[in-house]
Amino acid sequence: MALAQTQTRLQVRPLNPALGAEVRGVDMSKPMDPATFKELHDAWMQYLVIVFPEQHVTDEQHVAFTRNFGEPEIFHQSIIKSKRVREIFRVSNVDDEGKLMPPDHPTVRQLSAAQYWHTDSSYRTIPCTGALLHGVEVSRTGGETEFTNMYLVYEALPEKLKRQVEGRKARHDFDYLSVYTGQTLKPMTPEERAAVPPVWQPMVRIHPVTERKSLYISPIYNDEVEGMSPEAGKRFIAELAEFAGQPQFVYRHRWETDDVLMWDNRCTMHQVTAFDPRERRVMHRTTVVGDAPVIAA
Ligand code: OGA
Ligand code: MN
Asked: What is the whole-number distance in angstroms between the Cα of residue 264 and the centre of ligand 1?
């Protein structure tokens, strides 16, 4: 009898009926062979959020692993971006020198926008595909990250809302953050502003790999909806965000040190729960450059 040729390289454990799976059998500090990559990518497309436990990686290893999935994005602002490794986006209330920043520090204020539903870099003409977040110093007082499956959200939309989003665009403007959060943020320099002009994205998109439709909104950036007054557009986005945040669509992750989470920004939103600002929370993110404009459904 011939020996079985299929060897399971990865252990994949679903975490929630809506989305999320834990994957063991990957060492992010090492190169990945093509067969393992394929297996991992398939799991990612199926579960949308992958949790890699116990990945004690350096920033350089984190960036190198990210390159399996594409080119890392470089953030357009000087704040938040790591001074040491430019591909690293620091979701952190601790500065590059290791000092805890107060809650009214511009960086901390800006990062507090992550406490509302959003998908990353939707304000770019070509938004990212995914992001990988490494829990370097994790919170014990909150700071859990919630993800929502936007395929399921789209499919479950009441007919009236579905008709309203079909064929419609929403505007995504990075500069809307301060209005949305009601926070005074560090103004962008003219160069930073020029790098991220407002863009219109379809509200229903087709995933280039799975070819499934999902609702595509990013409430922290959505300042306008096509064919609606600014006020009506904001109410509409708020209604959709509330619908998307229902528990049947959401996985909530409680972080352990050295968890790395990889999510697909094309078909999920996320938000972080509040935590005690006196507690250090250091999370390092890489983001994968998208390869084509968003495809409308
Ligand atoms: C992000 C983000 C949430 C968190 O890194 O894009 O929104 O839990 N982070 O820190
Ligand atoms: Mn985010």
From this structure: 13
